[in-house]
């Protein structure tokens, strides 16, 4: 999402929308507590104690890396905070660079942004990072479609992913990384639908699945903003219902707002933006410095358990 898109959304009636907002925000995780959770000694119930965590993931989205506003330094500070939380790997939800998608963006500007990202990613070389494509990552203004920097292939190379969509397995969980950037965005194209249907079908029954997309597959906060969610959500909800023993959670970004929705037993987390207000101070609608509306800049720590349960905590950062 960008500021032009957001201004479109600010005229909408917000009264009927139930974004969870600040109530779902979390303080930084106390890594000395069992499972790194913010619990006073003795307050965990017996059921929670029996749950075994399989993975801890940092979900960063809408990094919007740029040279301005000291963004690289502030990103590094965020990463130091995240590293202390003993994560297994990163999910990067797209809009990794500030913007390549506008008609006036030059080759040099695109290269400048990706060069900063490359350096920052190298500094995190000890960590796996699985990324998806954001709408601002692609350079559509290349002189022609044969240009090596045109469109999605170049972004896939910059992110080092196996393709524009893919899946992988880890510790009993299955991860699906989607490409939302298709006609009627966000949406899946026909080839991706066929692939996703087969990918879910081949899984053993009850295999827990987490999906990553840039645009939310389903969200409440999209009514507070013009950025929009997946337009093919009915298709997705029907597909997930066919695999309701598998699909547990879907995480996204794009809106720069934070919410959670549960539908048919699937949890949908829209996890704000690491860059908040694109690393800028904000505007008259910002509830705090660098906030977008009432969502502070932040990231999510997601704990996945062997029993298929998910805990997603949005953690504001102060950098
Ligand atoms: Fe964004």
Features:
20% strand, globular, alpha/beta, binds fe (ii) ion, 319 residues, Purple Acid Phosphatase, chain A, domain 2
Structural write-up:
The protein is an alpha/beta fold. The protein contains 7 helices and 11 strands. The relative contact order is 0.18. The model is unreliable at 6-24 and 27-43 (pLDDT under 50). Bound molecules: fe (ii) ion.
Secondary-structure element order, N to C: HHEHEHEHEEHEHEEEEE
Mean pLDDT: 89
CATH topology: Purple Acid Phosphatase, chain A, domain 2
- Adjacency order of strands in the biggest sheet: 4-5-6-7-9-8
The CATH top-level class label: Alpha Beta
Q: Helix proportion of residues, in percent?
A: 10-25%
* Number of helical regions: 7
CATH superfamily: Metallo-dependent phosphatases
Q: Strand share of the residues?
A: 15-25%
Shape: globular
Domain count: the total is 1
- Distinct bound molecules: fe (ii) ion
- Number of E-state strands: 11
Distance between the termini: 21 Å
Name of the CATH architecture:
4-Layer Sandwich
How does the major sheet shape up? 6 strands, mixed
């Amino acid at each position: 999402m960008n500021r032009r898109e957001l201004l479109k959304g600010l005229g909408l009636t917000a009264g009927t929308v139930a974004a969870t907002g600040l109530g779902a925000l979390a303080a930084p995780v106390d890594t000395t507590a069992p499972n790194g959770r913010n619990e006073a000694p003795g307050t965990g119930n017996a059921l929670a104690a029996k749950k075994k965590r399989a993975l801890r993931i940092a979900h960063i989205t809408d990094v919007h890396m740029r040279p301005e506003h000291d963004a690289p330094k502030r990103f590094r500070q965020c990463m130091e905070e995240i590293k202390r939380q003993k994560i297994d790997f990163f999910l990067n939800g797209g809009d990794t660079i500030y913007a390549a998608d506008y008609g006036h963006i030059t080759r040099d500007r695109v290269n400048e942004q990706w060069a900063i990202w490359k350096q920052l990613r190298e500094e995190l070389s000890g960590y796996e990072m699985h990324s998806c494509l954001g709408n601002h990552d692609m350079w559509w203004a290349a002189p022609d479609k044969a240009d090596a920097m045109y469109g999605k292939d170049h972004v896939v190379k910059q992110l080092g992913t196996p393709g524009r969509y893919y899946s992988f397995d880890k510790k009993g969980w299955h991860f699906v990384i989607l490409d939302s950037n298709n006609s009627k965005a966000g949406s899946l194209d026909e080839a991706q639908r066929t692939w996703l249907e087969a990918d879910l079908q081949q899984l053993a029954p009850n295999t827990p699945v987490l999906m990553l997309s840039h645009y939310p597959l389903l969200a409440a906060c999209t009514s507070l903003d013009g950025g929009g969610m997946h337009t093919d959500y009915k298709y997705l909800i029907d597909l997930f219902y066919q695999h309701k023993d598998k699909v547990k959670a879907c995480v996204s970004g794009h809106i720069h707002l934070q919410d959670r929705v549960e539908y048919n037993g699937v949890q949908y987390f829209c996890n704000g933006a690491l860059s908040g207000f694109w690393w800028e101070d904000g505007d008259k609608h910002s509830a705090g410095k660098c906030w977008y509306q009432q969502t502070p800049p932040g990231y999510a720590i997601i704990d996945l358990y062997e029993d298929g349960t998910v805990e997603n905590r949005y953690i504001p950062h102060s950098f």
